[in-house]
Each structure stands twice: as structure tokens, then as C-alpha cells.
């Protein structure tokens, strides 16, 4: 019998990665990465205003390039006929305004350069005011529609972004028929959808970001949204009432995309989901093991059997949704808005002279300048990690709070800012890096504490994503700060692999995604164990981190160590 292959596509914050996988065992046959060109040039973004927009063409070009590249790299002659399914995960909440035909407005000539007509990336925080209004309005409402999203609505999410967009841009408002998550748009595109009302919405995105819940028989009613702002009046009726888990097909590849990708029209396209949800599956999540997808941000994923969870509602996380990770279980999501992005911020800061002064050195050729810059970009975090690991640590060493992009969990507040204290003339770059790295680990610990305080035991940690693979320094620190072992998954592309597992299930190659996970999972490569000698100093410094965080948040007085 001929082999079956599946494709998993993972849309990250900076790039899209596709993997071609043997559906029987999960072996990766080929992979391909595409960095979004417009995004890389910084187009349509304004970091100072927390505006981060992505053009749909970056996604579409990347889809075609990576899938074709995987097929070509496979070297398998009739691979186009052997691929059975494709599934997609994306960041989220990353929604876009579409017209009645489901076309993102930025794909229309009149909106092609308008950031409000593009995908609003998860980390865009331009809707802080709107999120606050949603929270205020819900407090006075008879029904608590925020009960399944941790009790606080975030500016990273669907409704806050829609409200902000229709407020600031009357032309976009006029042209907007519906509002669609990236993870729901791509399957719609691949299946040749022609009507926005027919877009299949994933329960993952709908439950965690759009306030959809079976208990509410769908989305909250129109009155609720119209009460927040009359500009939202009527949207609910044009959105959706039904949702789907990602083990289900969204449809089959349409002729146009079958031809563009070199695949057949019998290829099943699975229902999409968020990157970290599929990543948790790719990384072989187990009940009560916190699967930490550590990249630009972190998403901390947990599954619990429905019957065991009973009526527990965890406060201050990004939601608990039936079937959002594994169909049949409650999927919970928490996270940090800046994790790898916190190190990337410091890297940008330290490379300022390289970006700004190197071009002034006329004696250097362009090639030499570029080589210097590339070497610095590639090596900086690695060298900082080596040096930071060798520094002595005391209770008074430099200390930071990690809210460089606001606080996602516990208790979302994207308007919060980061802080660093304890600087002195002897403070060097590795010391600042260590403080920031430590702060991201402390932020991670605060999430574990929240779950435990709310009655959800955490049995262990699973580490996935770019930072888990690239930084032994931060992973060892994480194990020490948490006083818990952290198992690092073998797969380089857990999110894309998870998407491939869902593709195989949607195509009927497996009955349940748990079976796909069992057969296709790649296992773990190593475990970082907590080191006894570091536990007490981190425990002490964690208390200081909480005090500094409280000071930043409430401007209360700080305890002083003499
Ligand atoms: N050596 C390193 N140590 C710590 N962080 C790193 C290192 N190299 C890269 N990173 C961080 O990894 C992050 C990217 O993670 P990745 O999982 O590849 O991306 P994404 O979040 O888009 O899925 C960046 O924010 C970057 O700062
Ligand atoms: O917030 C979510 C999902 O809810 C993520 O998509 C978002 O943090 C982006 O993740 P990355 O850090 O780019 O992997």
C-alpha cells in the first residue's frame, strides 16, 4: 500500500513554516520557512503605538512558497497524489475585516495600503481603551459573558480589535461585512470559499477570543454588543453561531489552490486553530502538564478532563474552552505577551549603534558592514547567555519585571509596562540580559501559581517552541525558578507537527487526535532538572519580583533590602 502524507502549516509572528510529514509515524520528510517580506520591512507597523499589522499577501505568498518547497524538497516523485490533508495553525487573536465574499479588505485595490484593512496581529495593543470598555460594560451586565475567558477581556482579542477598527476608520467600517480570525480565513481560502457567512469558525478561536460558548448558545446577543457601542450593532448576525473542532474537515482543496500548490482536489483541509493549541498537541500534551510554547510570546496550555474540572472557572487566564486543544477535554490557555520578544527588545537596544553608526563608517564596504551586522545579530543572544550564566547572583542583583508588551496572564492588562531596578555603574549588558531572562521565568511562575491557587494542579512542564530549543540557559533557569523539571520536546516544529496530526485526523487516517499524537509524536529530547543550589535565591528574588510588579502596577511602596 502506498504511503500517506500530510502537511502542517504554522503561521508564526514573523514567518510561516510548513512541514510535510509521513502520516503513519510523524517523520518529517521536508520543511520550509518563509519570512513575511512586508512585515520584515516594518511596513504598516508602529511599535511606539503598539500597532502591528500584517498584509494578507505575506500569508498567501508564504503558504504557496513553503508548501511547494516542501513538495519539491521531498524528492518523492508522485508526492502531489500522496498528500491526503493539510491543516493550518496561526497566531491569534489575529483578525481581519472581510467583505461579503470573505475577501480581506487589504486585498482590494482601494485598501491595499491601509493598515486597518489588514490582519491585526495578536500583539497589536491599539485597542486597550476598547478592551477596558468591554470589561466595564460586562461588570454591569446581568450575564457574565467573560466567565470562560478568565473574567477580563484583553486588547489582544477579537471584539476589542473590531470595535477599535470601526471607530477609527469609517471607510473600513463601511466596507466590513464580517470579522475573521487568521486561522479561519486560511482554510476558507484553500477550500475556495466565496461567502463570508460560510466561513467555518474554529471553537479554539471562537471560545478563547470571541466569547462564543455553548452555554450562551453561541456568541453573546446583539444587545450586549450594541450596548457597548452602537457601532457594533448588527455584527453578531453576520458572524457565526456554530463552531468546529480541528479534528473536522473544513472542506477539500479547491481547484485553484490545488493547482497553485501542486496537490489534488481530494486533499482534505482541516479546521484551523491557534498555533499554541496545535503546538501543544504536536508536543504530546498530557492532562495537568503545562505545555509552554515559548517563542516571541508564551502560551501556556493545559488540558483537563471535563468531568474532573466540574465547575471550576480559572480567573485571570486566557480562557477555558471545551475542545480547544483536544476534542472532548477542556483546553486552557494562559501566557506572556513578551517572552522571546523581551530578549529581542534588548538585542535591538544593544545593536542600536550597529544599525545607526556602522553606516557612517565610510571606510567599510557594504559587504563588510552587512557581515558585521549579521554576525552581531546571530551571536548576541548566545554570547549574552554564556556570560550571564557565569555571573554571580545575589538577592540585590539587577531585577526586572517582564511586561514589555503588557501582561497577558495572570489578569490581562496590556497597558502595564516593564521595569528594571538595581542598576549601578558596574551593571553590564549580560547582567541586564540575565535580569530580563529571569523576569520572563518569574512571569511564567506567576502563571503556574495562578493555576494552583485556583485548584488546578500542575504536575510538570513541557517546553516547546523556539526559545525552548535555542536556549539551554533560559530553560535551566526556568526549571530552577519553578522548582520543577521541564521536558523539552524533540520536534523542531511542534506547532506545524500538531497541525499535521490534526490534518491526518480530519482526513480520517486516525479516529481521534490522541491516536495521531501517539503514532506521530516524536518524543522528548531532554529534561532540565531543578538545581538545588539555586532554589532559595530564586525563591527570594521571586518575592522581590512580585513586589516590584505590584509597585509598577499600583505604585505602592517597595520593601528595601539592606
Ligand atoms: N539564543 C536565544 N536565546 C533566547 N531567545 C532566543 C534565542 N534565539 C532566538 N530567541 C528568541 O526566539 C524567539 C522566536 O521564537 P520562535 O518560536 O522561533 O518564533 P515564533 O514566536 O514566531 O513562533 C524570538 O523572540 C527570539 O528573541
Ligand atoms: O496568543 C496566541 C494564541 O492565543 C499566540 O498566537 C500568540 O501568542 C503568538 O505566538 P508566538 O509567540 O508568535 O508563537
From TrEMBL:
The keyword Transferase applies. It catalyses: L-ribulose + ATP = L-ribulose 5-phosphate + ADP + H(+). NCBIfam families: L-ribulokinase, PRK04123.1. This is Ribulokinase. Its EC number is 2.7.1.16. InterPro entries: ATPase_NBD, Carb_kinase_FGGY, FGGY_C, FGGY_N, Ribulokinase. Belongs to the ribulokinase family. It comes from Sphingobacterium ginsenosidimutans. Keywords: Arabinose catabolism, ATP-binding, Carbohydrate metabolism, Kinase, Nucleotide-binding, Transferase. Pathway: Carbohydrate degradation; L-arabinose degradation via L-ribulose; D-xylulose 5-phosphate from L-arabinose (bacterial route): step 2/3. It holds the Pfam family FGGY_C. Residues 5-282 form the Carbohydrate kinase FGGY N-terminal domain. Residues 292-507 form the Carbohydrate kinase FGGY C-terminal domain. It comes from the Bacteria.
Amino acid at each position: 500500500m502506498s504511503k500517506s502524507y500530510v502537511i502542517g502549516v504554522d503561521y508564526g509572528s514573523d514567518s510561516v513554516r510548513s512541514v510535510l510529514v509521513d502520516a503513519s509515524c510523524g517523520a518529517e520528510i521536508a520543511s520550509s520557512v518563509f519570512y513575511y517580506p512586508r512585515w520584515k520591512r516594518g511596513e504598516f507597523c508602529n511599535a511606539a503605538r503598539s500597532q502591528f499589522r500584517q498584509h494578507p499577501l505575506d500569508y498567501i505568498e508564504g503558504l504557496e512558497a513553503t508548501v511547494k518547497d516542501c513538495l519539491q524538497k521531498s524528492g518523492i516523485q508522485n508526492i502531489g497524489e500522496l498528500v491526503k490533508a493539510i491543516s493550518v495553525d496561526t497566531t491569534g487573536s489575529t483578525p481581519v475585516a472581510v467583505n461579503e465574499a470573505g475577501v480581506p479588505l487589504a486585498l482590494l485595490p482601494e485598501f491595499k495600503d491601509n493598515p486597518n484593512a489588514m490582519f491585526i496581529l495578536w500583539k497589536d495593543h491599539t485597542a486597550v481603551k476598547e478592551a477596558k470598555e468591554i470589561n466595564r460594560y460586562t461588570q454591569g451586565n446581568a450575564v457574565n459573558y467573560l466567565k470562560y475567558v478568565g473574567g477580563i477581556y484583553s486588547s489582544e482579542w477579537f471584539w476589542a480589535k473590531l470595535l477599535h477598527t470601526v471607530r477609527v476608520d469609517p471607510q473600513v467600517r463601511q466596507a466590513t461585512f464580517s470579522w475573521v480570525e487568521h486561522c479561519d480565513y486560511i482554510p476558507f481560502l484553500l477550500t475556495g470559499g466565496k461567502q463570508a457567512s460560510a466561513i467555518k469558525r474554529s471553537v479554539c478561536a471562537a471560545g478563547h477570543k470571541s466569547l462564543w460558548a455553548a452555554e450562551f448558545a453561541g456568541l453573546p446577543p446583539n444587545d450586549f454588543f450594541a450596548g457597548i457601542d452602537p457601532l457594533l450593532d448588527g455584527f453578531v448576525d453576520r458572524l457565526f453561531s456554530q463552531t468546529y473542532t480541528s479534528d473536522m474537515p473544513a472542506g477539500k482543496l479547491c481547484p485553484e489552490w490545488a493547482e497553485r500548490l501542486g496537490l489534488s482536489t481530494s486533499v482534505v483541509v482541516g479546521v484551523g486553530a491557534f498555533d499554541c493549541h496545535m503546538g501543544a498537541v504536536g508536543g504530546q500534551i498530557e492532562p495537568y502538564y503545562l505545555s509552554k510554547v515559548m517563542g516571541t510570546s508564551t502560551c501556556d496550555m493545559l488540558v483537563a478532563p471535563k468531568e474532573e474540572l466540574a465547575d471550576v472557572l480559572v480567573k485571570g487566564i486566557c480562557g477555558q474552552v471545551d475542545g480547544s486543544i483536544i476534542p472532548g477535554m477542556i483546553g486552557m490557555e494562559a501566557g506572556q505577551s513578551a517572552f522571546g520578544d523581551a530578549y529581542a527588545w534588548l538585542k535591538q537596544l544593544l545593536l542600536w549603534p550597529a544599525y545607526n553608526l556602522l553606516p557612517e563608517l565610510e571606510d567599510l564596504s557594504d559587504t563588510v558592514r552587512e557581515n558585521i551586522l549579521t554576525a552581531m545579530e546571530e551571536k548576541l543572544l548566545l554570547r549574552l547567555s554564556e556570560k550571564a550564566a557565569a555571573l554571580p547572583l545575589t538577592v540585590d542583583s539587577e531585577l526586572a519585571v517582564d511586561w514589555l508588551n503588557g501582561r497577558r496572564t495572570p489578569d490581562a492588562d496590556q497597558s502595564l509596562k516593564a521595569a528594571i531596578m538595581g542598576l549601578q555603574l558596574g551593571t553590564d549588558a549580560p547582567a541586564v540580559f540575565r535580569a530580563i531572562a529571569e523576569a520572563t521565568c518569574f512571569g511564567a511562575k506567576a502563571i503556574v501559581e495562578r493555576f494552583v491557587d485556583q485548584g488546578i494542579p500542575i504536575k510538570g512542564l513541557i517546553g516547546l517552541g523556539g526559545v525552548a530549543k535555542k536556549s539551554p540557559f533560559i530553560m535551566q533557569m526556568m526549571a530552577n525558578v519553578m522548582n520543577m523539571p521541564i521536558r523539552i520536546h524533540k520536534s523542531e516544529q511542534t506547532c506545524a507537527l500538531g497541525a499535521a496530526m490534526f490534518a491526518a485526523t480530519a482526513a480520517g487516517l486516525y479516529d481521534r487526535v490522541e491516536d495521531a499524537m501517539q503514532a506521530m509524536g516524536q518524543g522528548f529530547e531532554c529534561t532540565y532538572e531543578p538545581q538545588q543550589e539555586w532554589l532559595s535565591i530564586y525563591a527570594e528574588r521571586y518575592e522581590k519580583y512580585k513586589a516590584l510588579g505590584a509597585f509598577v502596577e499600583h505604585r505602592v511602596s517597595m520593601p528595601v533590602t539592606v
